Amino acid sequence: MGSNTTPGIRLANILMTDGSAKAHTDSEQIPFSLSSLILPTASRNLSKTLSSLQRSTLSITNRLSSIHHDSLFTQEVACHYKLPLIANERCGSWYIPPELKVGSAYFKSTDGHQGQWSFSTRRLNLQVLDVVSQHEGCIIVDSTRRGKSMPDALSKTIPIWCAVINRLLFDQGSRSIGLNTPKSVVSPSEHSQVENRIDGFVEEAKLLNLDTSSLRQKLTKPLEPLWLTPDLPFPSLPPHPPYHPIICFTCSHRVHGAENSEDGYIQGAGDDSEGWSLALTPNLFWQHKDLLMSTPEEDLPSLIGTLLTSQKAETQVSATLIRPTDCIYLAPLDSVKQEEWDAIIVCDAKNPFQPSPATDSTAKGGTIPITRPRILHLPTPPGKLGSRALRNLLHLIPPFLASALESSSKPKILFSCATGKDLFVGAVLVALCLFFNDDGSLRQEGAGASSSIDKVFIRQRLAWITTSNPNANPSRETLQAVNSYLLRR
């Protein structure tokens, strides 16, 4: 009786350890996948080897070398256009020597993601207009990781921002009032969908009651985004363009294969630095560039730790006045000199100051230390837990602030937290909503405030903060805590 077994597939001889041969039966198959041909131990060793190769390719040394490589082209672009460099944070600052960086912007790629297009009312980036006003245009520097030619922040978020600003400040007949996007990255369909949302974004911006008259004094022409990458020719500019060029510059060249195919070059090496930098900052990198790039990889963690310790001892950041008020300031904790202020509100897990034991018994929901300065400590851990804790502490701010404002005809009141970006924004936002009129003048707490406070009103006061201090970046949880407190008063 003949067999229907296919030779080489359903019947094979394999050599046994004792040298004998064993024939497969019909139920046995030759392996079809590579993994089934590799012994488990060999497979694990191969995986470890590949992971080790990837880690060595994405080493701090290779990242810093790639950043320096891309920064040279960034400087070439600045020289070519004779325009100032603005870093789109947090990535852009890695590629700009501090002496060439005129400012920072905060355009999020998520506001340009497919179907999530948005004009941020939290990060207005109006500080960019000051640079444009002084220099007739600017270059905004950013990068992105392997797989994309430019980040969504440059290809869509900034074009949306330009279109909204143009619509707010110029007549409908002006050039570049419409949306401009790079045709090589944004499809006609996506462009059309984004364009259909511009009217809504403009209406949202109008609700902020921005001082458009002062903004018009800064800009004499509309904004026009242009795009440049290392793989594209330089866009040409006429001698006296009828617009302010906003050059959206992706400084890393695109890697099509794996990183290990590029001799150590990493596209977008400065992106997501919290995952690789060991807390090294762009400023610290540029201050000690040669030392860092010449240090062996295994010695970098120790060196970076030493540099960070030294930097903390030297860093001094001036407080920011929140306009249009004349008495409310923001500053990170490590730069606060206690004796300079009439009152300080601290949002942090620990109180770095030493208040006196005397207290004001008129405080609602707690006691207020009477010191010079007066100090209110709101114990808040970092991150989301801090935002949740803040929700239950915001009621302490009005009585403390009322007392502090009564103690001086021209008080200086400081709000502070460890990061200088998040939690103290929630505290100062409560103060601005309850104690200040639209022109920044003081009003009696609660007088006509509770009935007029809604989410639009809160966004208007938030615009004061982000316009005065562009580094301020309150989390969604912090803003939710503020909304919950103010809207239920």
Describe this structure in words.
Helices cover 37% and strands 12% of the residues. With 489 residues, it is of the alpha/beta class. It has a five-stranded parallel beta sheet. Strands 8-9-14-10-13 form a five-stranded mixed beta sheet, with helices on one face. Mean pLDDT is 84; it is low at 1-28, 49-54 and 356-366.
User: What is the residue-mean pLDDT, rounded to a whole number?
Assistant: 84
Number of helices: 16
Q: How many strand elements?
A: 14
Low-confidence stretches: 1-28, 49-54, 356-366
Structural class determined from secondary elements:
alpha/beta
Sketch the major β-sheet. Answer: 5 strands, parallel
Strand content: 5-15%
H/E element sequence:
EEHHHEEHEHHHHEEHHHEEEEEEHHEHHH
| Rg over CA atoms | 29 Å
> In one word, what is the shape?
globular
* Spatial order of strands in the largest sheet: 4-3-5-7-6
Give descriptors for this structure.
single chain; 489 residues; alpha/beta; 5-stranded parallel β-sheet; 5-stranded mixed β-sheet; 37% helix; 12% strand
Quick gist of this model?
The chain is α/β, with parallel strands linked by helices and 489 residues long. It has helices at residues 34-37, 40-57, 60-81, 127-135, 152-169, 188-195, 198-206, 212-218, 282-287, 289-294, 300-314, 384-391, 397-406, 423-435, 455-468, 476-487; strands spanning 13-15, 21-23, 85-88, 101-105, 138-142, 223-228, 244-250, 320-321, 328-332, 343-348, 359-360, 368-369, 374-379, 413-417. The protein is globular, with a radius of gyration of 29 Å.
Topology:
Elements: E1 13-15, E2 21-23, H1 34-37, H2 40-57, H3 60-81, E3 85-88, E4 101-105, H4 127-135, E5 138-142, H5 152-169, H6 188-195, H7 198-206, H8 212-218, E6 223-228, E7 244-250, H9 282-287, H10 289-294, H11 300-314, E8 320-321, E9 328-332, E10 343-348, E11 359-360, E12 368-369, E13 374-379, H12 384-391, H13 397-406, E14 413-417, H14 423-435, H15 455-468, H16 476-487
Parallel strand pairs: 3-4, 3-5, 5-7, 6-7, 9-14, 10-13, 10-14
Antiparallel strand pairs: 1-2, 8-9, 11-12
